[in-house]
Amino acid sequence: MSRVYNFSAGPAVLPEEVLREAAEEMLDYRGIGMSVMEMSHRSKPFQEIIDTAEADLRELMKIPEDYEVLFLQGGASQQFAAVPMNLMKNGVADYIVTGQWAKKAAQEAEKYGKVNIIASSADKTFSYIPDVSDLPVSEDADYVYICENNTIYGTKYKELPDTKGKTLVADVSSCFLSEPHDVKKYGVIYGGVQKNIGPAGTVIVIIRKDLISDEVLPGTPTMLKYKTHADAGSLYNTPPAYGIYICGKVFKWLKKRGGLGAMKEYNERKAKVLYDYLDQSKMFRGTVEKKDRSLMNVPFVIGDADLEAKFIQESKAAGFENLKGHRTVGGMRASIYNAMPIEGVEALVAFMKKFEEENL
Ligand SMILES: *Cc1c(COP(=O)(O)O)cnc(C)c1O
């Protein structure tokens, strides 16, 4: 068996320790004679799995009591509709567009009400985060929406926007648990887990309880109503059971590593290895404003399509997978989520140095 260094943006690398444990428990989960995939979601062992996962997540993120934690399906993209359907009481929302995911969310919300784009970085192909310290927040906005880490472009908010008292909603898919989040500052935090936490198929929604109600837009499907899932402890219907189980293991792994503060330090150290190299390279360069750089997704270019193709091909042959940039951006992108060891980034930089020497 040999594992590659997987720089995929998602689904992405998971901790090897977690995968080994899951493999050990695959045929017989703790003596009950079946795998977690095969057990009833109404069974006692599964109830324990989901309860433990929630408790560990609450501990990791210091989630206050007046917030609900939901484990749902439909991916992050389904939340693009669920958010306006549940939260648009006035029929108005403000969106900050910093990339494709925020743009898609705004476009979806337009189906349900009035969407105001109160800031955007589209003018420079989303290579920066706009100044969000004094935004023209709409008086009647039900919420202000951000995508906190822009997976495709590699930018991240270092300061949350001043929403002038309005509810902040954040898609944190690609920075979930990469560092501490101050949950109190948000009304809703959500993300698909396949970037930084677990297997595709589970989305976690953390939502302040007063935002959960029966007053949703007319026609909202039962399954898209937060109250449906909050009332049922995420067990209204069959949840993404196996995904929740793996997420639970990743939460334990994060706790063992010292929690989110320790993770942030590690992620900063790890990203620095790559950014420092990019900043002095004569061949490669990063594509976003330094102050807005993501710790999780690092896009970079050579600026020569043939050399980039060569780099991607040779890096793959050397055991570095999925370094090709997003199809809409080109170039390269290294996603270096929690489970990517610093050794992986050091090895990548060594490979890039060698490539630079040989091809410059
Ligand atoms: C990947 C991603 C999405 C889409 O997630 P799905 O689970 O595929 O719907 C949305 N937002 C962000 C920030 C992402 O990185």
Bound molecules: pyridoxal-5'-phosphate
Radius of gyration: 21 Å
**The top level CATH class name of the largest domain:** Alpha Beta
Largest β-sheet summary = 7 strands, mixed
Helix content: 25-40%
Overall number of domains: 2
CATH topology of the largest domain: Aspartate Aminotransferase, domain 2
Entry summary:
With 360 residues, the chain is an alpha/beta fold. The protein contains 9 helices and 14 strands.
How is this structure best described in words?
This protein has 360 residues and is α/β, with parallel strands linked by helices. It has two domains: 241 residues, Type I PLP-dependent aspartate aminotransferase-like (Major domain) (Aspartate Aminotransferase, domain 2), CATH 3.40.640.10; 101 residues, Alpha-Beta Complex (Aspartate Aminotransferase, domain 1). It contains nine helices and 14 strands. Strands 2-10-9-8-5-3-4 form a seven-stranded mixed sheet. It has a three-stranded antiparallel sheet with strand order 11-12-14, with helices on one face. Helix 4 links the parallel strand 3 and strand 4. Helix 7 packs parallel to helix 9. The radius of gyration is 21 Å and the shape is globular. Bound molecules: pyridoxal-5'-phosphate. The site of pyridoxal-5'-phosphate has 12 residues, from helix 3.
